[in-house]
Design goal:
With 391 residues, the chain is an alpha+beta fold. 41% of the residues lie in helices and 15% in strands. Helix 7 (212-226) packs parallel to helix 12 (366-384).
């Protein structure tokens, strides 16, 4: 019984030894398949374009799609300490534009050499930015050929920038519209500035009265037609009746005002003068109307013009009262009445007054009627002036 137990123990020991031997062989085989970490070759040197002076590439690189050829290798043999493994090949320094990547990790089963090829491409650096002044100065403007004696060419050459603007029709229109818009805005906010802004120019008119409804109407009319005009007034009297009657009396009264002003005042002989004289006339039986005669005389240009304002109807009772108050021995009865219609209206309607009774009777002020007539007179005067004088 004891012998049987010993034999069974020996068989168990034999089994254990065999397993130990096989395990040792398997361990040695596994150790032989692992490369030595301490014998891996150092990394390849950097490419030349990365090691150029300054630390930056001299020319820009444009990388293409990487081409990675995979080269399979056989499992390396058992490495020995101090020698390079068979599976690891020392790569030569890469050529310019190529980068060789050699895996160094121990967990890579196979070794592959990845080659990334980059191509050098010459790129022109961008041009330096220029300021707007430099760009505009580099633009060459062709010279305009202007015939000799041309007013545009002479004004552009003599006046510089302003002469060139005055010779350019488009710019002249733009400047004129801008100026007109600004003047309209200013005169709208402050109507008193209109007289100051539009005064001046080559046209200077003298009015034979200092009343605002006459001087203001003539000034506004001439400035509307000529653009810029200087208009002022001086008081002058006529030798006709207080209330002229008929067209002849109206024209005669206006002309006498001009003559008296030239004789008594220090007025230049060539000074253009506008005279305004109001009168009444019976256009139809028992139908009386009030008008104004406007006369313009310019001895220098030999211009003599007459025009009339619109007729405003007058109630017959006012005419009868004025006739009754005029004595029969009145020396100027042949050309008019001794009492004006304005005085009769003021006595009958004190709230209206004699200064502007036309607005209270017919709804149109005398200034408005004189403005339309003076505008017509200014337009006729402009048509008869020389072109060089107007421009």
């Amino acid at each position: 019984m004891k012998m049987m137990e010993e034999s069974s123990d020996e068989s168990a020991e034999l089994v254990d030894k065999e397993e130990a031997v096989s395990a040792e062989k398997l361990f040695e085989a596994q150790q032989a398949s692992k490369p030595d970490e301490t014998s891996i070759a150092p990394p390849a040197p950097l490419p030349s374009f990365l090691t150029s002076p300054g630390g930056t590439p001299t020319t820009p690189l444009q990388a293409t799609s990487p081409k990675v050829p995979v080269t399979p290798t056989t499992p390396p043999a058992t490495p020995s300490i101090g020698s390079a493994p068979q599976g690891v090949r020392a790569s030569s320094p890469p050529a310019q534009g190529q980068v060789n990547i050699t895996p160094t990790g121990p967990m890579v089963p196979t070794q592959a050499t990845a080659t990334i090829t980059t191509t050098h491409q010459q790129i022109t650096p961008p041009m330096p930015q220029q300021s707007p002044f430099e760009v505009s100065s580099s633009i060459t403007v062709p010279e305009m050929e202007v015939e000799e004696g041309s007013s545009v060419g002479s004004s552009a050459g003599s006046g510089g920038l302003f002469g060139w603007i005055s010779g350019n029709r488009v710019l002249s229109k733009v400047v004129e519209k801008t100026k007109s818009s600004m003047e309209s805005m200013i005169t709208t906010l402050d109507p008193g500035m209109k007289e100051i802004i539009k005064s001046g120019g080559d046209v200077c008119i003298l009015v034979t009265s200092t009343k605002d409804n006459k001087v203001g109407a003539v000034r506004e009319a001439f400035q509307t037609v000529f653009g810029r005009a200087t208009v002022y007034g001086m008081e002058s009297k006529a030798n006709t009746a207080a209330q002229p009657v008929g067209y002849t009396s109206g024209v005669k009264g206006a002309e006498e005002r001009i003559q008296n002003l030239r004789q008594t005042a220090s007025v230049h002989d060539d000074q253009p003068i506008v005279s305004v004289e109001g009168f009444i006339v019976e256009m139809l039986p028992d139908r009386w109307y009030e008008l104004s005669c406007l006369v313009l005389q310019d001895p220098h240009h030999r211009i003599d013009l007459q025009t009339f304002s619109q007729p405003n109807p007058i109630p017959a009772e006012y005419i009868l009262k004025a006739q009754d108050r005029t004595p029969s021995d009145y020396p100027l009865r042949w050309c008019g009445l001794n009492v004006t219609i304005g005085q009769i209206v003021e006595e009958a309607c004190p709230h209206i007054g004699h200064a502007d009774w036309q607005a209270g009777i017919v709804g149109v002020s005398r200034r408005e009627s004189l403005f339309l007539a003076a505008k017509l007179l200014a337009y006729m005067y402009k048509q008869r002036l020389p072109t060089t004088y107007v421009s």
